[in-house]
């Protein structure tokens, strides 16, 4: 079966797990709304973007975004904080099931055990945003991207380092740029559904907190 983590645990403030001499404790931080004028959601590294949306769509609107932060302690060393998941909450209802968010043409039946589809991160950042926002961002020149998203000094705290900006003035479509867990890699996004099958949530798992 393709890899689907136990997101109900990771998306719980106060969740705590100990693994290999490290303690992980989860915090929730509200980042404000994401504006989805088309309802077509893209997961990508916004500094190396692609514009292909997931197959699942949602009604256009404004939806709350949460950064789930892992506070990591070692037995004999300092602690640090990393964003372990990025969530767009579409419906304020319990998630009954989780499945992998797919791009057109992706077939989860083709995956082996523990495999997953994900988006590549090459600049240490990630986002969940509307297709309109990412398409607009792709039109920016490097100087504008650098001025907006690449500070002279990145704050140590990952929540302080989040950058939110409107990238399409016509629709108000915006981007929340967050640090992608430990950095570059490939990260999967998952769709949470209500008991009657409606999309309740999109979550990108940056794989900081180990899953049971």
Question: How would you describe this protein?
Answer:
With 212 residues, the protein is mainly beta. It is 9% helix and 42% strand. The protein has three helices and 13 strands; from the N terminus they run H-E-E-E-E-E-E-E-E-H-H-E-E-E-E-E. The protein has helices at 7-10, 131-138, 142-149, and strands at 16-19, 22-36, 41-44, 61-74, 80-89, 97-100, 119-121, 125-130, 163-168, 173-179, 185-187, 189-193, 199-205.
What are its keywords?
single chain, globular, 7-stranded antiparallel beta sheet, mainly beta, 13 strands, 212 residues, 3 helices
Low-confidence segments, given as residue ranges, are none
Write down how many β-strands occur, each being a DSSP E stretch of 2 or more residues. 13
Order of helices and strands: HEEEEEEEEHHEEEEE
Q: Report the sheet-strand fraction.
A: 35-45%
Distance between the termini: 16 Å
Mean pLDDT: 95
Largest sheet: 7 strands, antiparallel
Overall geometric form = globular
Widest sheet: strand ordering: 1-2-4-5-13-12-6
Rg calc? 17 Å
Structural category: mainly beta
Count of helical stretches: 3
Helix content: under 10%
Based on the structure, what is the oligomeric state of the protein chains?
Answer: single chain
């Amino acid at each position: 079966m393709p890899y689907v983590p136990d997101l109900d645990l990771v998306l719980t403030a106060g969740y705590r797990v100990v693994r290999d001499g490290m303690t992980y404790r989860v915090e929730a931080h509200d980042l404000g709304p994401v504006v989805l004028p088309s309802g077509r959601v893209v997961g990508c590294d916004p500094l190396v973007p692609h514009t292909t949306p997931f197959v699942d769509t949602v009604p256009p609107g404004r939806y709350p975004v949460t950064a789930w932060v892992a506070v990591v302690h070692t037995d004999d060393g300092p602690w640090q904080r990393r964003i372990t998941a990025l969530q767009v909450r579409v419906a304020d209802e319990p998630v009954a099931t989780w499945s992998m968010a797919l791009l057109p043409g992706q077939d989860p039946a083709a995956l082996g055990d523990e495999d997953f589809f994900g988006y590549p991160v090459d600049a240490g950042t990630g986002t969940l945003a509307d297709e309109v926002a990412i398409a607009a961002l792709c039109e920016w020149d490097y100087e504008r991207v650098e001025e907006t998203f690449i500070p002279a000094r990145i704050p140590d705290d990952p929540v302080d380092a989040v950058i939110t900006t409107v990238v399409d003035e016509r629709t108000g479509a915006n981007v929340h740029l967050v640090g992608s867990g430990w950095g570059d890699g490939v990260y999967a996004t998952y769709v949470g559904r209500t008991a009657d099958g409606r999309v309740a949530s999109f979550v990108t798992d940056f794989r900081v907190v180990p899953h049971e």
